[in-house]
Design a protein that fits this description.
This protein is mainly alpha-helical. It has one domain. Helices cover 75% and strands 0% of the residues. Helix 2 packs parallel to helix 6. The longest helix is centred in the first third of the chain and has 28 residues. The chain is globular and about 50 Å long. The N and C termini lie far apart (61 Å).
Length: 214
């Protein structure tokens, strides 16, 4: 009986990591990194930062979560965690639409292109994983983790500022996310690693191209 206690504790930690690093929260974490890192973006007016975070909080976290009770009531999903691939389709489509709405709203704001590229890149990743999910189950948590690592690296390179104290925690968090998904048997190694790489390279390419052509 005592051998089960360490396993139960690890499982609880894995569930906590899954909540803390939920993919819906990644855009907020990304904006928080941009606003707090020692670059020029840290000097943006507080009201601008607050407004951007508020828009993302409402459109990309509160609204998607508000649909979950309805989905459960209509038997579109069977649980809050949405484990089955096919059950993800409708929630992902709605989430992607909300991401696109956020991008449309913020595109009109007179803010640095870098910020716009991250928000549009997040919408691109939402669309990408939605399309992938029609055929194959990818780890959304891992996509989010890869995107955050990508953001820190791009921010560091663009601003010519070493951000080791952001990059190291991002990599550690990414490792915890991948480990937690495997520990809970929600994904296999292929799904988490491809998710991580898709998030990293998907956001990197989109942000770099966006900033080049806009």
């Amino acid at each position: 009986m005592t051998t089960d206690k360490p396993n139960d504790f690890i499982d609880r930690l894995a569930k906590i990591f899954a909540i803390i690093f939920h993919p819906l929260l990644m855009p907020v974490y990304g904006m928080a990194i941009i606003f707090s890192a020692p670059t020029l973006f840290a000097y943006l007016p507080f009201n601008v930062k607050k407004l951007l975070l508020l828009i993302i909080l409402i459109n990309n976290i509160l609204l998607p979560l508000s649909f979950l009770p309805f989905f459960i009531h209509r038997n579109i999903i069977t649980s809050w965690t949405i484990r089955e691939r096919k059950e993800r389709n409708i929630p992902l489509i709605i989430t992607t639409i909300l991401y696109c709405a956020t991008s449309y709203i913020i595109f009109r704001f007179p803010i640095p292109v870098f910020l716009k590229s991250f928000i549009f890149g997040s919408a691109f990743l939402a669309l990408m994983v939605t399309l992938i999910n029609f055929w194959w189950k990818i780890s959304l948590h891992s996509v989010g983790a890869g995107a955050i690592i990508s953001l820190v690296l791009i921010l560091s390179l663009k601003m010519l500022t070493p951000l080791d104290w952001y990059l190291i925690p991002a990599i550690i968090a990414g490792g915890l996310v991948l480990s937690s998904r495997l520990r809970l048997n929600l994904h296999n190694p292929q799904q988490v690693w491809i998710g991580l790489l898709a998030g990293f390279f998907g956001l990197s390419l989109f942000m770099l191209l966006f900033q080049k052509f806009i």
